[in-house]
Amino acid sequence: MGILLATSPLLIVALGALLVMLVEAFAPKLQRGELAWATAVTLVGGALASASVWMVGTVGIPGAEALAPYLLTDRFALFFDFTICVGAALAALLAGGYLPEHGIERGEFYVLLLWSTLGAMMLAGAGDLLSLFIGLETLSLGVYAMTAFRRASPRSTEAAMKYFLLGSFAAALLLYGGALLYGATGHTDLAGIGQRIAEGTASPVLLLVATALIVAGLAFKVSAVPFHAWTPDAYEGAPTPATAFMAVVVKSAAFAMMLRVLTVALGAKATSSWGAGWSTVLAPIAVATMTYANLVAGRQSSVKRMLAYSSIAHAGYVLVGVAATVRSSGAEAQAAVLFYLLAYTVSTAGAFGALVLAGSRGAESVSYEDLAGLGRRHPAVALPFALFLFSLAGVPPTAGFFGKFYLFRAAMYAEGSFRWLVVIALLNSVVGAYYYLRVLVFMYMREPAPGAPIAKPMKSAYVTAALVACALLVLALGLAPGASLDLALLAPARG
Amino acid sequence: MIPLEHYLYVAGALFAIGTLGFVVRRNLLVQLMSLELLLNAVNLTLVAFNRQHQDDHTGQLFAFFVIAVAAAEAAVGLAIVLALYRLRRSVRSDEATLLKN
Fold it and tell me: A249-270: per-residue pLDDT in tens?
């Protein structure tokens, strides 16, 4: 009984997915829009369930660890379950407005979205390489299909093809690394692997190759430079709600997996110290990721593609925090990463939502030019867009500001030489402000060229609801960030 | 009995061939086949290591899961290739150049 309660977030999402699937198959006449509500309600239910299990505390539930190590129900998993469910619910609401507007309304999208979310939640709770792999593939296979959802569009299909090829390749790298770890330690559960490595009995050559393969595979999944090549194409070609899902849910789940694998399985000195382990590799990757993404993002003419590069840049900031978790004050850095991902989820989902709302059938808003004069023509669309861009740029009093503040503070006070990393990250935030503010310049200070096609905002209760929710969360996290950070501090990754 | 190392060398070679095929070839079907090769290299590694760690059958069990997931992955991959072929009459990945900086 305890295990049913402890895994109720996942069970709710799975039941909801089954229901939506059945309704879609047997009641095709039902309005598709109702599926969007059903999906969003299911996901909000999942988020509420993870919050309630958190309050009870899994320690207080007998039998909660019955599925360990395959599925852990610790607070780390619950925090990510909450973030993932919120992000997925926002993406579902965006889909409820976007799909009918652009004539690709089919119920399968919601089913794929729900099952992918379940995969993401499995990934956050996986304490064994086996369930980690299953969760990763459950997540990825659904997202590949969501990317290709606009079947008649060559761009959507091409995006899916690129995403599929590189995503599967990354999974294979990760899996080979996992197989070598199993060979070196005789364990597939992360805690067992970590223990064996700490004992020093594992073959160093196998460990080195395995760590390299796993770090490369993880870097692919969080789209860190030099493994980012698929990201802009996949984000640009996918239908915008699928892009939002990739940017928030897939990224959060990938970072959950990264934190758990790196700290629990590869957290021992032999695989994590400077000079020998992953933290040496991760710091340069973080620098390359944020610098490259920020420089390239400024040169884009498509806002959607700019947001794709922006998500790569944010992955770079988070990697600074991940690299700092290896220090003795790592708990604080890890909590900052968790908070950052929550803040990033609501800001990014909001930005993509505003982009959805600013366009309509045949006049989708994609480029900067499309948005020219939007602030005067449609202030109700431009204002939330501006708020989310401020949050992404890290302007107080928004969620993004405190995300960056906590993250950089934790990295700053981590012992050892992380100061230079923080300085580079700060400089990068300044560069990043340029391309976010450029959108504002186009919205408020430019007028569309005469005769140029302009984006006409659509009307949708779903998208409006998503934007209102995002705006409230962005402001709430920005005005009272301490509460969520305290919660994040209670959620360390364990094996 | 064939020593463990030999299996690992074969698996490593398979993985290298798969990686090479994936990176060098531009035919999507060949790239999909290379992906299968990568996963089979992993399977061989897992089963070979299971002989070293004989207290349980984790490695063999893992290999079964990998096989099942590889089948699901191939289904999604082929569906995407098919959709691309319908639109462009080509299965070459270097001809997909609509999305660029």
Answer: 999 999 999 999 999 999 887 7
Q: How would you label A236-266 residue by residue, b for 16+ Cβ within 10 Å and e otherwise? A: bbbbbbbbbbbbbbbbbbbbbbbbbbbbbbb
What's B66's domain CATH number?
Answer: 1.10.287.3510
Q: Among A232, A240, A386, A388, which residue's Cα sits nearest to residue A305?
A: A232
pTM: 0.96
**Total of domains in chain A:** 1
Domain contains A311: yes
Counted residue by residue, chain B has a size of 101
Q: What is the pLDDT of residues A401-412, one digit of tens each?
A: 999 999 999 888
Q: Is residue A494 part of a domain?
A: no
Asked if the Cβ–Cβ distance from A169 to B35 is below 8 Å, we say yes
Chain B interface, mutation test: which of A112, A139, A147, A161, most B Cβ atoms within 10 Å? A161
Put simply, the answer to whether B96 touches A158 (Cβ < 8 Å) is yes
CA distance B20 to chain A (A): 12
Which chain A residue's Cα is nearest to B73?
A141
- CB-nearest to B69 from A133, A151, A155 is A133
Q: CA-CA distance, A294 to B17, in Å (whole number)?
A: 36
Domain count, chain B: 1
Residues of A in contact with B84 (CB under 8 A): 154, 157-158, 161
